[in-house]
Amino acid sequence: MLALQVLANQDAIAAEGGFEIPTPKPEALENAVKVAMRINGKRTEVDVDSRMTLLDTLRERLGLTGSKKGCDHGQCGACTVIVDGERVLSCLTLAATCEDTDVTTIEGIASGDKLHPIQEAFVKYDGFQCGYCTPGQICSSVALLDEAKNGEVSHVSENISAKTRAKMLSDDEIRERMSGNLCRCGAYPNIVKAIKEVHRGEETAATWNFATQNDAMAGNSSKEDAENETV
Fold this sequence. Notes:
alpha+beta; globular
Protein backbone atom coordinates (compact mmCIF):
# COMPACT_ATOMS: atom_id res chain seq x y z
CA MET A 1 0.00 0.00 0.00
CA LEU A 2 2.84 2.34 0.89
CA ALA A 3 4.58 1.60 -2.43
CA LEU A 4 1.41 2.48 -4.34
CA GLN A 5 1.13 5.73 -2.42
CA VAL A 6 4.75 6.64 -3.20
CA LEU A 7 4.22 5.90 -6.91
CA ALA A 8 1.05 8.01 -6.91
CA ASN A 9 2.92 10.90 -5.34
CA GLN A 10 5.69 10.61 -7.93
CA ASP A 11 3.15 10.63 -10.77
CA ALA A 12 1.50 13.71 -9.31
CA ILE A 13 4.83 15.52 -9.03
CA ALA A 14 5.78 14.55 -12.59
CA ALA A 15 2.41 15.82 -13.87
CA GLU A 16 3.07 19.19 -12.24
CA GLY A 17 6.31 19.59 -14.20
CA GLY A 18 8.93 17.79 -12.12
CA PHE A 19 10.49 17.99 -8.70
CA GLU A 20 10.71 21.40 -7.10
CA ILE A 21 14.11 22.02 -5.56
CA PRO A 22 13.95 24.45 -2.62
CA THR A 23 16.35 27.35 -3.13
CA PRO A 24 17.79 28.72 0.10
CA LYS A 25 18.23 32.43 0.35
CA PRO A 26 21.85 33.65 -0.03
CA GLU A 27 21.87 34.88 3.56
CA ALA A 28 21.02 31.34 4.72
CA LEU A 29 24.21 29.99 3.15
CA GLU A 30 27.59 30.13 4.81
CA ASN A 31 30.34 31.64 2.65
CA ALA A 32 27.83 32.09 -0.19
CA VAL A 33 29.11 32.76 -3.68
CA LYS A 34 27.23 33.19 -6.94
CA VAL A 35 28.38 30.91 -9.73
CA ALA A 36 27.38 31.31 -13.38
CA MET A 37 27.77 28.27 -15.64
CA ARG A 38 26.35 26.94 -18.88
CA ILE A 39 24.79 23.64 -17.95
CA ASN A 40 23.72 21.48 -20.87
CA GLY A 41 23.79 24.58 -23.05
CA LYS A 42 21.71 26.75 -20.73
CA ARG A 43 23.23 29.62 -18.77
CA THR A 44 22.55 29.08 -15.07
CA GLU A 45 23.31 31.20 -12.02
CA VAL A 46 23.18 29.63 -8.60
CA ASP A 47 24.15 30.71 -5.08
CA VAL A 48 26.20 28.05 -3.35
CA ASP A 49 28.33 27.61 -0.29
CA SER A 50 31.93 28.10 -1.37
CA ARG A 51 32.65 24.55 -0.14
CA MET A 52 29.82 22.91 -2.07
CA THR A 53 30.80 20.38 -4.71
CA LEU A 54 29.61 20.48 -8.28
CA LEU A 55 27.85 17.15 -7.72
CA ASP A 56 25.82 18.45 -4.78
CA THR A 57 25.04 21.63 -6.69
CA LEU A 58 23.73 19.66 -9.66
CA ARG A 59 21.68 17.25 -7.58
CA GLU A 60 20.49 19.33 -4.64
CA ARG A 61 20.28 22.83 -6.07
CA LEU A 62 19.48 22.32 -9.75
CA GLY A 63 17.51 19.07 -9.68
CA LEU A 64 19.84 17.28 -12.13
CA THR A 65 19.93 13.96 -10.31
CA GLY A 66 21.27 11.89 -13.21
CA SER A 67 24.83 12.25 -11.91
CA LYS A 68 25.13 9.76 -9.06
CA LYS A 69 26.91 9.98 -5.73
CA GLY A 70 28.62 6.66 -5.29
CA CYS A 71 31.72 6.74 -3.10
CA ASP A 72 31.90 10.54 -2.77
CA HIS A 73 35.69 10.12 -2.71
CA GLY A 74 36.52 10.25 -6.43
CA GLN A 75 37.11 6.51 -6.67
CA CYS A 76 34.08 5.07 -8.51
CA GLY A 77 33.38 7.52 -11.35
CA ALA A 78 29.58 7.45 -10.98
CA CYS A 79 29.57 11.26 -10.70
CA THR A 80 31.55 11.89 -13.89
CA VAL A 81 30.44 14.92 -15.91
CA ILE A 82 32.08 16.87 -18.73
CA VAL A 83 33.45 20.36 -18.03
CA ASP A 84 34.79 22.35 -20.98
CA GLY A 85 35.18 19.15 -22.96
CA GLU A 86 37.04 17.22 -20.27
CA ARG A 87 35.62 14.61 -17.94
CA VAL A 88 35.82 15.47 -14.26
CA LEU A 89 34.75 13.87 -11.00
CA SER A 90 32.03 16.23 -9.84
CA CYS A 91 32.21 14.96 -6.25
CA LEU A 92 35.76 16.35 -6.01
CA THR A 93 35.14 19.54 -7.98
CA LEU A 94 34.04 22.67 -6.15
CA ALA A 95 31.15 24.42 -7.84
CA ALA A 96 32.87 27.74 -7.18
CA THR A 97 35.69 26.72 -9.53
CA CYS A 98 33.25 26.21 -12.43
CA GLU A 99 32.55 29.90 -13.04
CA ASP A 100 31.91 30.56 -16.75
CA THR A 101 32.41 26.94 -17.79
CA ASP A 102 30.39 24.59 -20.00
CA VAL A 103 29.09 21.67 -17.97
CA THR A 104 27.48 18.67 -19.63
CA THR A 105 25.68 16.11 -17.49
CA ILE A 106 23.96 12.90 -18.51
CA GLU A 107 20.77 14.92 -19.02
CA GLY A 108 22.48 16.86 -21.82
CA ILE A 109 24.06 13.98 -23.75
CA ALA A 110 21.04 13.21 -25.93
CA SER A 111 19.61 15.67 -28.46
CA GLY A 112 15.99 15.86 -27.44
CA ASP A 113 14.48 12.42 -28.02
CA LYS A 114 17.47 11.36 -30.15
CA LEU A 115 19.95 9.32 -28.16
CA HIS A 116 23.67 9.86 -28.49
CA PRO A 117 25.36 7.01 -30.43
CA ILE A 118 27.07 5.94 -27.21
CA GLN A 119 23.72 5.68 -25.47
CA GLU A 120 22.31 3.63 -28.34
CA ALA A 121 25.34 1.33 -28.22
CA PHE A 122 25.00 0.86 -24.44
CA VAL A 123 21.41 -0.26 -24.99
CA LYS A 124 22.38 -2.51 -27.92
CA TYR A 125 25.19 -4.28 -26.08
CA ASP A 126 23.56 -4.26 -22.64
CA GLY A 127 26.35 -2.09 -21.22
CA PHE A 128 24.55 -1.69 -17.92
CA GLN A 129 22.68 -3.80 -15.40
CA CYS A 130 21.55 -1.95 -12.27
CA GLY A 131 22.29 1.32 -14.10
CA TYR A 132 23.67 3.25 -11.14
CA CYS A 133 27.09 3.80 -12.68
CA THR A 134 25.73 4.28 -16.20
CA PRO A 135 25.46 8.11 -16.23
CA GLY A 136 29.14 8.39 -15.34
CA GLN A 137 30.10 5.61 -17.75
CA ILE A 138 28.33 7.34 -20.64
CA CYS A 139 29.73 10.81 -19.89
CA SER A 140 33.20 9.31 -19.64
CA SER A 141 32.71 7.40 -22.90
CA VAL A 142 31.60 10.52 -24.77
CA ALA A 143 34.65 12.42 -23.55
CA LEU A 144 36.86 9.44 -24.43
CA LEU A 145 35.73 9.62 -28.06
CA ASP A 146 36.78 13.27 -28.22
CA GLU A 147 40.14 12.42 -26.66
CA ALA A 148 40.72 9.84 -29.37
CA LYS A 149 39.78 12.33 -32.11
CA ASN A 150 42.27 14.81 -30.66
CA GLY A 151 45.02 12.18 -30.61
CA GLU A 152 45.47 12.28 -26.85
CA VAL A 153 47.57 9.44 -25.46
CA SER A 154 47.12 7.29 -22.37
CA HIS A 155 49.29 5.16 -20.10
CA VAL A 156 49.11 2.15 -22.46
CA SER A 157 49.66 4.03 -25.72
CA GLU A 158 52.48 2.42 -27.70
CA ASN A 159 54.16 5.71 -28.59
CA ILE A 160 53.28 8.56 -26.25
CA SER A 161 55.51 10.98 -28.14
CA ALA A 162 53.62 10.54 -31.41
CA LYS A 163 50.48 12.60 -30.93
CA THR A 164 48.34 12.44 -34.04
CA ARG A 165 45.15 14.21 -34.93
CA ALA A 166 43.10 11.04 -34.54
CA LYS A 167 43.88 7.83 -32.70
CA MET A 168 42.41 4.37 -33.22
CA LEU A 169 41.96 2.80 -29.81
CA SER A 170 42.59 -0.85 -29.02
CA ASP A 171 40.55 -2.77 -26.48
CA ASP A 172 43.34 -2.25 -23.93
CA GLU A 173 43.30 1.50 -24.63
CA ILE A 174 39.57 1.66 -24.06
CA ARG A 175 39.81 -0.34 -20.84
CA GLU A 176 42.63 1.84 -19.51
CA ARG A 177 40.85 5.08 -20.36
CA MET A 178 37.65 3.83 -18.70
CA SER A 179 39.41 2.37 -15.66
CA GLY A 180 38.23 5.24 -13.46
CA ASN A 181 34.61 4.20 -13.92
CA LEU A 182 33.72 1.17 -11.83
CA CYS A 183 30.77 -1.16 -12.45
CA ARG A 184 29.85 -3.39 -9.54
CA CYS A 185 27.63 -5.46 -11.85
CA GLY A 186 30.63 -6.31 -14.03
CA ALA A 187 29.33 -5.11 -17.40
CA TYR A 188 32.85 -4.18 -18.54
CA PRO A 189 33.05 -6.42 -21.68
CA ASN A 190 29.80 -4.99 -23.02
CA ILE A 191 30.87 -1.42 -22.24
CA VAL A 192 34.06 -1.97 -24.26
CA LYS A 193 32.03 -3.34 -27.17
CA ALA A 194 29.68 -0.36 -27.12
CA ILE A 195 32.52 2.17 -27.12
CA LYS A 196 34.47 0.28 -29.77
CA GLU A 197 31.53 0.18 -32.16
CA VAL A 198 30.95 3.93 -31.95
CA HIS A 199 34.67 4.72 -32.03
CA ARG A 200 35.48 2.52 -35.04
CA GLY A 201 32.14 2.70 -36.77
CA GLU A 202 32.12 -1.08 -37.02
CA GLU A 203 29.61 -3.44 -35.47
CA THR A 204 31.15 -5.73 -32.89
CA ALA A 205 30.52 -9.41 -33.52
CA ALA A 206 28.14 -11.03 -31.08
CA THR A 207 29.69 -13.57 -28.72
CA TRP A 208 26.38 -15.25 -27.90
CA ASN A 209 23.49 -16.88 -29.73
CA PHE A 210 19.92 -17.77 -28.85
CA ALA A 211 19.52 -21.41 -27.87
CA THR A 212 17.78 -23.57 -30.45
CA GLN A 213 15.36 -26.41 -29.80
CA ASN A 214 18.13 -28.90 -30.59
CA ASP A 215 20.35 -27.23 -27.98
CA ALA A 216 17.59 -27.56 -25.41
CA MET A 217 17.06 -31.24 -26.24
CA ALA A 218 20.80 -31.89 -26.06
CA GLY A 219 20.92 -30.19 -22.68
CA ASN A 220 18.07 -32.33 -21.34
CA SER A 221 19.76 -35.50 -22.62
CA SER A 222 23.02 -34.58 -20.87
CA LYS A 223 21.09 -33.93 -17.66
CA GLU A 224 19.35 -37.30 -17.85
CA ASP A 225 22.65 -39.12 -18.48
CA ALA A 226 24.22 -37.39 -15.46
CA GLU A 227 21.26 -38.41 -13.25
CA ASN A 228 21.48 -42.02 -14.44
CA GLU A 229 25.20 -42.14 -13.68
CA THR A 230 24.50 -40.82 -10.18
CA VAL A 231 21.89 -43.54 -9.56
